[in-house]
Design brief:
By secondary structure, the protein is an alpha+beta fold. It has two domains: 197 residues, Pnp Oxidase, Chain A; 55 residues, no CATH class. The strands form three sheets. Strands 1-6-7-10 form a four-stranded antiparallel β-sheet. Strands 2-5-9-8 form a four-stranded antiparallel β-sheet, with helices on one face. A hairpin with a 6-residue loop joins strand 6 and strand 7. It is globular, with a radius of gyration of 24 Å. The protein starts with 6 loop residues before the first helix and ends with a helix. The C terminus is likely disordered.
Length: 268
Amino acid sequence: MPTPKSISNFKPLITNLAQTSHYQVIFGLPSSGTLSSYLSARGVNTTFVTESSGLLCSSASIPGSSLGTADINGNFMGVQEKMAHTRIFTQMQLEFYVDSDYRMMKFLEHWMEYIASGSGQNAASTGYYYRMQYPDDYKSNSTKIIKFDRDYAKEFEYNFIGLFPINMSSVPISYDSSEIMKVSVSFNYERYIPGKISSYSSVSGTSNNVQSGSQSSSATTTSQSSNSTGPLGAPTAIGLNSQQTLNEFYQYGLNGGKSAKDFIGPVP
């Protein structure tokens, strides 16, 4: 039942809201391959990529995700259920100021150029063709967005795995009144991890937004939930790294006797 509240009850919450204008983007290049030397040869050194390029990011979007689901029929008479089978991540849009040395443009242009430069041919030669580089050589696993506020007391970190640019929009220029030049880029990535993933946070037990001292209790809860069962003995939590749980899930069967592997594939 709702209860009356005074302004003093919710004022600490309402006056302590996060602001959109305090964030930092940090790029990291893949350790394998020759992307770093490819960019350096074109005037974009590692220092610019890791320290300066993110400061030129004029706007960013904190990424979102969704779950792909399958309709399940037959477990209960007249009831249609949904079960998740895939996590889907949306593309990330970033907009950058372009510096007077055009290093920001060079960084993005030549990153995309490198991805398609697997042929090793001179791009100006007749009959040039594109061949893609090996993914590990152009995908970044150390790019992050850090959201913080004016007091720097709290922060929320997003770490991207398998990130690379897939689209750079056209940049309008004209003889009209001068404005700051900007370039907008779409990045694709395999997944993101909310929270810190540094070696220090792993050792201290605070990675992935785990609060200090709560790691052990979280592990216990996960262990208990993985062994729980639902109606007719079906597991309610599927541990994708647990061969036993997956086998039990297959045997349970879904959708009028069909095996669960019809929905999520064979056991790895």
